Amino acid sequence: MLKTRVITTVLIEGSQIVKGQKFDNWRKIDTVLPIIKLYNLREVDEILICDIGASKGLYAINYEFIKGIVKNSFIPVTYAGGVNSIGQIKDLLETGVEKVVINSALYEDKSILDQARKLFGAQAIIVGVDVVKSNLGYFCTYRSNTVLSNIAIGEHLSAIQEYEFGELLITSIDKDGTRSGFDVDLYSEISDFISANIPLIVSGGAGNLEDFSRIMDLINPGGLAAGSIYMFTEITPLGVKKYLRTLGFRTRS
Amino acid sequence: MNDIGVLRMPASNLSSLLNAIEFLKYQCKIIDSEEDLLHVRKLIIPGVGSYFQSMEYLESRGLVDAVIDFVKNGGHILGICLGMQILLSEGVEDGLKSGIGFIKGTTIKFAADKGNIKVPHVGWNSIKLLKQISLLDGIVDFTDFYFTHSYYSSPIEETDIVATTEHGLIFPSIISNGNVFGVQFHPEKSGKMGLRLLQNFIQHA
């Protein structure tokens, strides 16, 4: 049986790793690589690279930089940020990235999912959805939360599931970086909208070990993505996996 | 020392595998022709993509016979994912197609409707060892490896099955026959234990 994956999110641009630094290839490699090597040592199951700057359209996808990360990762690496064409997906997969997240582009044209599946296989494609809560409910936001749509989360989830893809990565923007727990209310509300055949990765808010077990109890997701907790607390991916195993959940040993 | 070869396959991305071999501090040669094969002793066959197209590619370059001769002459092979599946007699993806045929058997597609499983089978899953071989030195029962595939190999002879994995049903995840080994998972993406397996193959499989 498949294991629930403990995924570390590495934010590039605007993240603590590169905060205050002007965009610069080599300096970023130097800064990020020790972290990537550390995650490999700590037995993380998957690395999620989110390039916020590329997502906002500030610059193009930096393939050389991603190549440097993949070269030092002997586990699957997923890339997110500014992906809107088949050519980009091809180039990303050629760097050795295992999976590519498509998010903002889907608000203009969802047919890219069909083309990508035919060319690269459904397993290579993850649909990313960023969500914020308003008084009227949960709504989709994109381009790294610079564009707030008037599309309700349920509506978007129904529309994208007309297509075939590998996984669904749903990030709670309200919780992201807060370390105040996964967005239990959000995931409870949307679980009815998600097909049982699509693995869900939850993202945003993990701050302590109980946050992981709580979301496991609630919806048993395929992946648990977190970033800040591993940067700013003593908790490691290995620690999370051990903790979940003691509670009877299946994680990679 | 340049006696490790990686067979180039269509639509297959070699970079992760090459990174892993480099990390282990070995050099390797990318194999495009029968002549290239003369210079290596160990051959890794990677592979994602289509069974049918991959075999057509190898046939069109005379590489099927070359690989068979390579093994006859004492060469060792490790097939990864699709590279494992083409070690069998035949595959059924995109139509029936003969494989290289080191191991008698065929490929089968996971049925999503049976056992309520997700297809493709993607993620970390454990192996159950049926026997211990040198490829698995230092690798214990129930070690997790990273899988991504929709078809699995089904050898006819049970003695060719080294380890199995469960995904709705129990399927062979490591097979071997003589100098020929196949793993359904991706050792180059399976962390420490994956690197260990690659090292085992290179050093003494």
Tags for this model:
heterodimer; A: 253 residues; alpha/beta; eight-stranded parallel beta barrel; 10 helices; 10 strands; globular; B: 205 residues; two-stranded antiparallel sheet; 25% helix
Tell me about this structure.
The complex is a heterodimer of chains A (253) and B (205). With 253 residues, chain A is an alpha/beta fold. Helix content of chain A is 36%, strand content 23%. In chain A, helix 1 packs parallel to helix 3. Chain B is built from six helices and 14 strands. An eight-stranded mixed beta sheet of chain B has the order 2-1-3-4-14-13-12-9. Chain B has a two-stranded antiparallel ribbon with strand order 5-6. Chain B starts with a strand and ends with a helix. Classes of the chains: A alpha/beta (253), B alpha/beta (205).
For the largest interface, the chains and their residue counts are: A-B, 30 and 31 residues
Shape of chain A: globular
> How many angstroms does the end-to-end distance of chain B come to?
17 Å
Termini of chain A, distance in Å? 13 Å
Order of helices and strands of chain B: EHEHEHHEHEEEEEEEEEEH
**Beta-strand percentage range of chain B:** 25-35%
User: In percent, how helical is the residue content of chain B?
Assistant: 10-25%
Low-confidence regions of chain A: 18-27
Largest sheet of chain A: 8 strands, parallel, barrel
Estimate the mean pLDDT confidence of chain A.
89
- Quaternary state, please? heterodimer
Going across the major beta sheet of chain A, what is the strand order? 1-2-3-4-5-8-9-10
| Backbone CA Rg of chain A | 17 Å
Give the beta-strand count of chain B.
14
Number of helices of chain A: 10
Number of strand elements of chain A? 10
Unreliable runs of chain B, pLDDT <50, ≥5 residues?
none
